[in-house]
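User: Continuing from earlier, I have the next pair ready.

Assistant: Great, send them over.

User: Here they are, in order.

Assistant: Folding the first of the pair now:
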Amino acid sequence: MKPDWDKLTDAFADSPSALIADVDCTTEGKPLCDANGVRGYPTIKWGDPAALEDYKGGRDYASLLKFAEENLKPMCSPANIDLCDDEKKAEIEKFMAMTDDELSAGIAAAEKQMEDAEETFKTGVSELQEQYQKLMTMKEETLEEIKNAGLGMMKAVKGAKAKKGSDEL
């Protein structure tokens, strides 16, 4: 992916409105990565620098370029309210009317909901994994019991009978 990413960076080097960049999350960039929820590498984020979103598209040059050309442009935001539809303008105006404390509380509540959703997901996956392990163990034990109860011998006898019957013809 790195060569394609570097090629994309070069393609947008002179863009007045789009920035394609690398951040090393293991060194000086770690605080930025932590603040933006980067957990694995490589991670691609895009959008308003104050509210970056996860990129979920292809990692080849053609996919990255297509996405960049379609999405990395001035967008509806408090800095570009003229690009917003009436619904987004109303939402921005509602948030602009809030105090910093109200905004911080709203952000904290929404982030808590996201953390809770992630925790619910992880707990559910863990429970499914435990159930899977139990079912796998039960299946293996049952199959072993069936084999030990004579399945192999029954098949051998049936085969021997079929062979003996064909020998008599």
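And the other member of the pair:
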Amino acid sequence: MECKLFFAVLMGIGAYWYSSRGPASGPSTSVEEGTIRGWQQQLGRPAKQYQRVAVGLNANLDLIVSGTALLRALKQSPGNSADHMALSSVAQLQEVFAFFHGRGSAAERVMTSPSVYKEIVQAADKLEKKKYFVGGNAALMAQTMVESSPNSKVMLVGPVGRKLRNALDKNVDVPATSLQEDDEVHLILEYSRGEKWGENAASCANRFIFSHDVANSELQPLAHFAESLISYNPDLVVVSGLHLLDNKPADFWQPRVKGLKLALTRLPASTPIHLELASIANLDFVAGLATSVFQSVHSIGLNEQELMAVARSAGGPHTSLQTKGPPESGVVSDQLTWLLAKFGGKDSLLSRVHFHSLTFHVTAQIEGHWENSQTATGAAARVAGRRACQQNEIQPQSVDLLFPLAFARSVEDASLRRVPVVYDPSAPVASWKRNGLEFFLSPVLVCKNPQKTVGLGDAISATGLLYSKYTPPSKH
């Protein structure tokens, strides 16, 4: 009864605030315009200029097409929807695409058949509307860092073919050991908000990614990455691509994950290490990854699907929820609290988690470990709209604020649940403390007609890192 009353009050506060637009915005200012101005006033500059950044391990060339157009070219019609941990046929591709399209959710899977994948790539390449871009979490984060911090030296270790090398910023340093003749191609199936596939209309613009990628999926660059970390002497390390081991048997991924952990433990504890997750279907792999690697990194970046996968694999809260559309802030806050309590703390390096979703971001961190996080969270949320709309400065008529105008900070904690936060666009980044943790939440201004959906999470996490400053344990 208490929860029902709380949410009724929450909706009432939000409805009243929306009708009045709040005292900070003024009657003629939209909430979107107010948010843009609020970011300008509230956000500062990066706390630290990283000098040498090492990024690995996945890099590829993205082939971006319309998902529905490709399925039609493959002579597929809307049919059953189902999730598959891995794909082996065009029919399964249709089922998984329909499954995530119906939820408006991003996802990534592996195609196990090289011949089927080759057939699909050829069909995609024949489409009239197609685009090739830099792809792979590591390559995208390296690219973002060079663009955002041109004075930083950024090294990318991953399989880089000729087309990808030409597409990368010339200031991204690619060691000779990472260069190869052919590119690893990943297919990005995009869809727009309201676009139909069968009876379902997508609730938001998003994308489904799949690939048959040997070099990345076997983590072939790992040995070179481990060697480079010692010689390069970075002051920030970013690791991604582990999700590509998702469909491999345990006796394949376990030694590779162990090798990565060993390489990371050789770095000084004062060098921050960030792990960027991506879509993972195998909960046994998620559990193994969390147990083996989480405590050897200082920071993690993930979205709602990845956060839920971690919670389900390791006994976290709210795992029975089956939701469509954007996640709930209170649920996310509880799961981040649990994650840092379980995997962070005295014997662990982990002290920060950057959660990103379509409508809002949250940075949760152990007190005293990171500085400038309010600005970092807001800057990361802001870059999502800029990248999606392909605008240097967000235009208020191009975006929507889809985040609730009054929101909860917890479901489990009654003291937080009973006091909703009313959104103030003049100060878009809200903050609070809970159980020795600091939380920073910023809404995202969602692009109405996105020009790009792929790579946003990587640009978001890279931006958040560049604005953050890690405080080594010796300074606590």
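Worth noting for the second one:
The CA atoms of residues 63 and 446 lie 24 Å apart. The first strand starts at residue 52 and ends at 56.
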